[in-house]
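User: Structure tokens for both sequences below?

Assistant:
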Amino acid sequence: MTILLTVFALVFILRIIFMVYGSARERAKSHKINSKNNPKVSVVVAARNEEEKIQKCILSIQSSNYDNYQIIAINDRSSDKTGEILDNLAKSIKNLKVVHILNDSQKGNLKGKAGALHQGFLNSDADIFMVTDADCVVGKEWISSVVAEFQNDEIAIVPSFTLIKGNRFFDKIQAVEWVYMHTMASAGVNWGVPLGCYGNNLSISAKKYFEIGGYEKIKFSVTEDLALLQGLIKNGGKAHYKCSYASAVHTLPEKTFKDYFNQHRRWAIGGLGLGMKATIFVATSLFIWLGLLLTAINADWISFFVILGIRFFGDFSVILPSLLKLKQTKLFFWVFPSILFFLVMELVAPFMVINKEVEWKGQVFGHNKN
């Protein structure tokens, strides 16, 4: 059993090294804001039934200190007052353009959010598309800090971090988790292995988007952000995962565990598009659980706590540098209880993908089905 436990521990330690070193290298690649670099930017926000949040989002974008941008808001078949709110905002915000999608005419690869974003991109003449969600707010330097990364002409896509605002215990767990997931995703980008990104803070070279045919040519996925990252990298584009407070967006946590579960089920189903990479990642977590189970059955409590310690301090070493970089030091206390929560959720994750239909914003999608 000792040999088996050693193998389990070494596999997980290799994962930690992969994540820590990869994310550190990715953080080191970031450029500083260059005032001389002033490409045109379109901030694209797809909104479906977001009447309570959309105005705050648009006003936060309007406060940007960047001087060469427009906002393109997509009212995606909303049945509430989202479209009306956007039209009223456009009367006073001169660089706000509203596009209304009135019927369910988008099919195939352009279903759902992917189709809405594609319409926004088609209505833009910008050099860079920056995407955020209607339930997010951004800072004044958000645009300029991300634009700095496109000084490198080879860059096709720049994912950036999302920060969660909330005071409940469950809110803090989600806040830690988002930073943790972004950090692991940034490590994957560094190694040329796209593991994920999040569409509420994603920026794309317009030229490279249309060179690959955009979402119209990318196989449909319930995680359209990951599909786009994979498509651009597969076609020779380079990515940089930016980690800075200026480039982060702020959003709200899921209010209930049911909403949280549905969100993660969608992510898990979309993650099936990673193929063997997803299997390997899940296996590394499974090894920790197998080690804990074996040591508990044999009452080998020293080994049990050694393995648990490897998991705790390994994950803490992954997330700590990102928390510091993002000025989220108040979350330090919440890292260890969050890791316990992650351990439990990892047992649930395989069962999330049994039913591959996903309901999102009142729409039902199947995994990678046209």
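Moving on to the next sequence.
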Amino acid sequence: MKDMFCKRRQILHEQLEDNSIAILFSGSTVQKSADADYKFYTNNHFFYLTGIERENVVYLCEKKSNMTKETVFIKKQNIDLEKWVGRYLTKDECRSISGISEISHYEDFDDYLLKLLNNSHIKHAYLDLENRGFDDYSTIPQKYSSRLTDRYAHIRQVNLHPIISEMRRIKDAFEIEKIKESIKITREALSYMIQKITAGMAEYEMEAHYNYILNLNGAEPSFETIAASGSNAVILHYVSNNQIVKSGDLILFDLGVNKNKYCSDITRTIPVNGVFTERQKELYRIVLETNKKVIDAAKPGITINELNEIAKSTIFEGLMHLKMIDNKDELIKFYYHGVSHYLGLDVHDVGDREKPLEPGCLITVEPGVYVWDEGIGIRVEDDILITENGNINLSSEIPKEIYDIEKMMSN
């Protein structure tokens, strides 16, 4: 695997200006409360380029005369702390994972960087400066960016985030296989959970059945599981999962698996008592037809925005046929999210959504209809790999036809 990470870094190196440095941080743990921390999760850009999944690790690339030198900075060994938190990453382990031979200590990084910056040949500094809003908290690279601005104003800073995001937009064969594995576990867990559904259960009980299969496979949810029954399903990110499931209601499951850092994202809408009512079927057919039409249209050259327009038109026609809507301006009352996003290391993966899709892009297709007055929310979501000739539905084995769902629940 280290050859794969080396190849990815080589692609990055070719995009760096000469006389430059590139710095990436794995990240640090965040305090939860008192002496408890949130579970650490490696920065995905950092992992994509190095394969390392440890906190407080730094990757540094120096490019001079079109030659590159790579160094990884890891924490010094501390036998006393290892008794509490586990073994630290060793230099040999770091080399074996990343393919980078030069390893130094994290505690020495600042001194090393200062000496490097004082060398006049450095003209560009590349940092991952992802920023979601002006009021968002400062990340580690943003703090270093501020220091550079204050002390080395002559060095031009370049944001690595869009560069690596574009690299990640196209999945390689390794990534596709990992996502397939996550989808397979999702299918098994969803099937197991559906067999357990009975009226009178709490939503969190169904989530527990789902998590049971994930735990058996050494996986975890790729996001907080949505088990939204009845009127809860009109709320897109309902995660309370604390209501009692009632006979006659639908329950919307939006869920995924993170296995080896690669994610799935699947949605299915199921009748609690195993049988759709006629009204539920009417609305479900609109969503299912939209799901199929968008999947059929997903191919190289089309954009995610264009796919969403297909979804909107199909849903509009279906609702107009049911005399629920007269013009497209009313559609926002029943369909109020996009139909697609990229999928990969992140559930809502990085990449420019305005660019035409290319072979290797992996997207979701997730149309929905939400009728607040009737307490009905329906969404159907699949994971789609764009190929040279169109696409492959990687989640096609997860039932979504009305007949197949009712048959599955009757067993």
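User: Anything stand out in the second?

Assistant: The chain has twelve helices and 19 strands.
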